[in-house]
Amino acid sequence: xxxxxxxxxxxxxxxxxxxxxxxxxxxxxxxxxxVTDDAVYDENGEPTGPAExxxxxxxxNIGVTDSLGGVNPFATDQTEINKYAMDLMFLxxxxxxxxxxxxxxxxxxxxxxDNMHFIVHIDDEATWSDGTPVxxxxxxxxxxxxxxxxxxxxxxxLYAFEGTDDATGFVEEGATSMAGLTVLDDKTIQFSAxxxxxxxxxxxxxxxxxxVLPKHVIEKFSESELxxxxxxxxxxxxxxxxxxxxxxxxxxxxYTANTDYWKGAPKIDKLNFKxxxxxxxxxxxxxxxxxxxxxxxxxxPQEDYESIEALKNVTVVYGSPVTNQSAFIQTANxxxxxxxxxxxxxxxxxxxxDQLLKGHGEVxxxxxxxxxxxxxxxxxxxxxxxxxxxxxxxxxxWDSTKVLRFYVNSGDNTFVNGVQVIAAQxxxxxxxxxxxxxxxATLMTVAGTTDxxxxxxxxxxxxxxxYPDVTWLLGGEGSWTGYYNEEVTGALEGTQQTSSVEEIKxxxxxxxxxxxxxxxxxSVYVISAQGAVSNRVAGAQPSVYGFLNxxxxxxxxx
Length: 558
What we know:
Low-confidence stretches: 1-11, 13-31
Helix content: 25-40%
Mean pLDDT: 91
Number of helices: 15
Structural class: alpha+beta
Shape: globular
Radius of gyration: 24 Å
Largest sheet: 6 strands, mixed
């Protein structure tokens, strides 16, 4: 599962990157543009904006602050904006709803009896926009192409399934079958894993990220064409609620309704993602140019929160606390757990939530926030206790002249401000740190070494499936913490042996209690991000998960 962990590590951090960015990047199109006559052009004929509604048409504009990476499932990573952009055309098998329950999208069920074999049943009503039924053969063909060494997809890694190469996750070029895939009937396919996997891991890692493509269309392309064919810029056969009509990677993505959508024709005729700078969100909501924002695709600057709350034409919705401001301690450099615990006791974490986040967050110990079904409310966070911190340091024989190297993401303006408070509180108990702020790419390079003592970064642990991330982070030598504990490893493996929520919760409670006792990492705070929706929009609400699950039911009232 280590390879799955690495894949999800990149996704978690990409999500965190979007949560702290306040700009959308360069103003050019980055060489990634597909436009139609619906686009808005400047005097030089360059596309500058999304499609506009014709007379009598309904339109909704979603404001986002990250640029688009691409719309081809075979060639694009599945960070949030890319995933949502593709979800509108090609439904995933399942998706989480706002309450973190798995909701059927293309599939109506995914089941397992042994955590080794997973039965996926495609909804009997599911059809492509040309009227062709969606079948298990579409799933099989899509997976085989994702696993092709020619396509070399870098996101949907399939190492976990029988018939794929252990080192690459690929099958042979042009493969027509795979041991880990068995079509049981037109609507049912079985995935067979190489080792036990919790149902939630399969649902979250594959059910949510496998975009099934129409076999009867893409089988016309060679494997080498699947990553570059222009069909993917404007596909004419889809399973989702909206056809892509045009995009500019740094400015917009435009869609028009699939009136033959098998779950019901969308009420909104046109849908746009407007890609803007974070500082433009307030003005866009105020003017009505932006109708809705979402917590993980839209980084609203903290300083604008109160101004947006005061707008009369929008409703503010704070999201579930899922983005963790985590601090990782390199245990090879700070081997004494008493010193690591002292670092936690010395910080007034609730003060940081109240002052930096204006109360929109929480303090937890370990990896899981209250949003997770596996959260254990009996694990009370270590309280702010500088005297306890001093006692622990004295017991450990701490050298107060030592200076710890503390690396922080320069792109996280809120935390950069707060880190000065943390440094002062540590200094008050005799722990001195040298703060180095670097961009996220540099921070990730540093994280892969032992050339730091403490490193802080925003990290989103999937609430329903933290296993891959936690396994990686506590994986001993080579991981960010360098920490290894047999009891923790056993508990993590236990989460994959059962589908019982209560049993999984007990295993994660073991892990999080160890985090409290031995502190190879700690949570500074968990963020509840702000989202907003225009009062003219009906049936839509910002949510961390499940944002577009029922987009075909969105409407406008004015």
